[in-house]
Every structure is written in C-alpha cells, then in structure tokens.
Write a structure and sequence with these properties.
Layout lengths: L6 H4 L5 H14 L5 E2 L11 H12 L12 H15 L8 E4 L2 H12 L5 E6 L4 H8 L3 E6 L10 H7 L4 E7 L11 H11 L6 E5 L18 H4 L2 E6 L12 E4 L2 H14 L5 H12 L6 H18 L15 E2 L9 E3 L2 E3 L2 H12 L1 E2 L1 E2 L9 E4 L4 H15 L1
Parallel strand pairs: 1-12, 3-4, 3-5, 5-6, 6-7
Antiparallel strand pairs: 2-8, 7-8, 9-14, 10-11, 13-14
Bound molecules: 4'-deoxy-4'-aminopyridoxal-5'-phosphate and glutamic acid (GLU).
The site of glutamic acid has 10 residues, from helix 2.
Length: 395
C-alpha cells in the first residue's frame, strides 16, 4: 500500500501464480532445491518449425509496428483454425490478436464492463479473472461448484446467480485450475438459461482446447443462438509451448472486436511482429503436430493422480484437460504438522513450499478455499520426487 499510488493499483491483488513462481525462483537462487509445480507453463521447447518461422521473419526484416489487431495473414490463419478445429465462421473484422490471452481478457473487460456490472465466474476460475473484472470496476459474482459435479456450474446455479446487473459470464474449458471440460450438453443447458437473458455476454476461454484427454472440445459460439454474444478467447501459450512469445486472440461479434482494437490502439498497439509471423505457422499446422506434448501430459496426469491417491487427505477429481490437479486438502485443516498449524489452503501451500520444497498455488487464488493447485507441466521425474517429498513432509 502506498497512498501516492492510485486506489486502482492499491486494490489490485498480485497474481498468485506469478507470485508463487517468483518466490520459487528466489528460493532457488538462495540454493534451495525447489520443485516448481506452481506455474501453468509447458516445460517443452517451442517446436522447431515455429522457431524457424521466427528466425526467417527476423531475416526478412519484420521489424515495424504491425496493424493493431494483427497481421492480416495471421488473422486469416486464425479464421482457418476456428473453422477447422471449432466449426466457427469468423471474418477478418471479428478477429483481434493481442499480447497474450491475458490481454485479450483485459481488453474485453475494459470494453464491456461498466462500474457495478456483475460478471458471473464459475468457481474455481482462473486466477486473473476476478482482478481483471475488478480493474474495470466490475463485480465478480462467484458461483461455487463442487468436486461432486466435477467443478462445473449447472444451469440451476447459473440461473440463481443472474440479477438485473449481470453483464457477462467468464469460464475456461478445459478449466484452469480444475481440468474440467464442459460437454456440448452441459453448455447447451447453460445456453438455454441465457436464452431468457439476451443482454448477457459469454467469454469462452479455450486456451487449453488442445490439451484435452477425452476429446470432444465444444465452443459456446457453435450454438447459433450464442454466436452473437460469445467472445471466444484462445492463444498459443499452452498448446504450442509459447508462453513467453505472448500471442493470444479472440473471435467475437465485430462491434466487440472493433472496440478491443480501439482499446489496444491506445494502450499497447499491435502484438510483437516476430511472434505474430511465427504463430501463423503454428496455427496453420494440424493439431497432430503437437500430439506428442498432449500424450505426455496425459501420462503425467495418470502418474500424478496415482501418486496422490497414496496420500491420505487428498481428494481429487479426474481432470479431463489442461495440466493441473486441484485436490481438496481440507482434511488437514486444524492440524499441526512439524510445529506448523494449517488452517487453510494458503497455509497448506506454504507448508509444502517450506517443508517439502514443492511450489504449488493456494486454491484461494482461484476462489476455492479447500483446494490447492498442482501443475503437472513438469517432467515425470520431478513429479515423482515432488509427490514423494509431499508424502514425507505430511507423514
Ligand atoms: N486463460 C487461462 C485459463 C490461462 O490459464 C492463461 C494462462 N496463461 C491465460 C488465459 C493467459 O494466457 P496467455 O496470456 O499466456 O496467452
Ligand atoms: N496461466 C498460467 C497459470 O495459471 C500462467 C501464469 C499466469 O499467467 O498467471 O499458472
């Protein structure tokens, strides 16, 4: 807190995922052997064919500002991708390329939300949703889901959360942090509720689309009656192991895309030129080109689920996508282990960091006080060692 700073920044929470990753880095620099399972970041290298495209772009002197909403060739590749993978038809004015899906979300919040507008967030939700909404003076409305329903919001819960102030619903599927994937039928049930409320808009965050172990990804905008009020958010960070390249994008009704373009024109301009050229190649490639990473994530999921099942007090759903497990560890609340009392998920996550040297993220950051998030975007050896350490620290 610094009273010279704006209320806006003083009231903003620090991103818990990035804070934990920074803390793990700090401890490592002090010589501690920390295993980082906090950050949602693939541990693979960006595929060579994408790196080659970036090198070629540099050599071809792509160094100027790009159009604010992205190179036309990239927007065309995004349109083709949406058609190929999602059966969605967009035109050039409906696409905006941004500096990561995080910026896409921030753009959407700034152009759609007025002070006091409510945004329904099925809980657990991705860490930044609530603070991005609050930055635009919106009011996050958390809908608590349970592990018994695979952490998914039901139509009844949605209906009960809607008020005259509801402006939007934001969700991710596959979900960060629960790994849950909404089926077509489940989305239809939500869409049927929304039929009665034509002024509510949906943000469908599909950044984990390809990291889906069950198959059958469905986009809300595929329903004809939802197309005009759904903003489909996606990006290359996760599927193509390109977190640092910072490219995300949306497909949206053209008036919303135009507004995002206008917003971006004042705050960041177009996304990085080299990264955009490389992403053209990434999106033109068939999803089979990244199957080796998805297969490996699937193996790691089995590994971590089976190792966690050997530890008392961890109750976990079976994630169908993304690369996180979100165990309920509330059985430990009220217990004192190694002189440390655990009263909540944050205490538990801190305990694991200090006593097992394993970095995780407290569920509180995702709107759930009983769980922690463990990212398994780490090698199988690291996962085995981390869970062994956790087991030892808790025994
Ligand atoms: N949405 C979700 C659900 C995420 O997990 C992330 C993680 N980075 C993002 C959006 C933002 O992705 P990026 O800005 O790297 O494209
Ligand atoms: N989305 C990733 C995560 O949830 C990366 C960190 C971030 O962007 O907050 O860990």
């Amino acid at each position: 807190m610094n009273d010279q700073l704006s209320d806006r920044i003083n009231n903003l929470a620090t991103s818990a995922t990035l804070a934990m990753a920074a803390k793990a880095r700090e401890l490592r620099a002090e010589g501690k052997d920390i295993i980082g399972l906090s950050l949602g970041e693939p541990d693979f290298n960006t595929p060579d064919f994408i790196k080659d495209a970036a090198i070629e772009a540099i050599n071809q002197n792509y160094n100027s500002y790009t159009p604010v909403d992205g190179y036309v060739e990239l927007k065309e590749a995004i349109i083709t991708k949406f058609k190929r993978d999602n059966n969605l038809s967009y035109t050039l004015p409906q696409i905006v390329v941004s500096t990561g899906a995080k910026q896409s979300l921030a753009n959407i919040a700034s152009v759609m939300i007025n002070a006091g507008d409510e945004v329904i967030l099925p809980c657990p939700y991705w860490v930044s949703y609530s603070d991005i909404v609050k930055l635009s003076d919106g009011v996050p409305v958390e809908v608590t889901t349970s592990i018994d329903n695979d952490f998914k919001m039901t139509a009844e819960q949605l209906e009960a959360a809607i008020t005259p102030k509801t402006k939007m619903i934001w969700y991710s599927s596959p979900c960060n942090p629960s790994g849950s994937v909404y089926s077509k039928e489940e989305l239809r049930a939500l869409a049927d509720v929304l039929k009665k409320y034509p002024n509510i808009y949906v943000v469908s965050d599909e950044i984990y689309e390809h990291i889906n172990f069950k198959g059958g990804h469905f986009s809300m905008a595929e329903f004809e009656d939802m197309y005009d009020r759904t903003i489909t958010v996606n990006g290359v960070s996760k599927a193509f192991a390109m977190t640092g390249w910072r490219i995300g994008y949306i497909g949206a009704p053209d008036w919303i895309a135009r507004a995002c373009n206008k917003m971006q024109g004042q705050i960041t301009s177009g996304a990085n030129c080299i990264a955009q050229r490389a992403v053209i190649k990434a999106l033109e490639a068939e999803p089979s080109s990244i199957k080796y990473m998805v297969d490996e994530f699937k193996e790691r999921r089995q590994l971590i689920l089976s190792l966690l099942s050997e530890i008392d007090g961890f109750k976990t759903n079976e994630p169908e996508g993304a690369f996180y497990v979100f165990p309920n560890i509330s059985a430990y609340f009220g217990k004192t282990i190694k002189g440390k009392t655990i009263n909540n998920a944050s205490d538990f996550s801190l305990f694991l960091l200090e006593e097992a040297l394993v970095a995780t993220v407290t569920g509180e950051a995702f709107g759930n006080k009983d769980c922690i998030r463990i990212s398994y975007a780490a090698s199988q050896d690291e996962i085995k060692e981390a869970i062994k350490r956790i087991k030892t620290a808790l025994s």
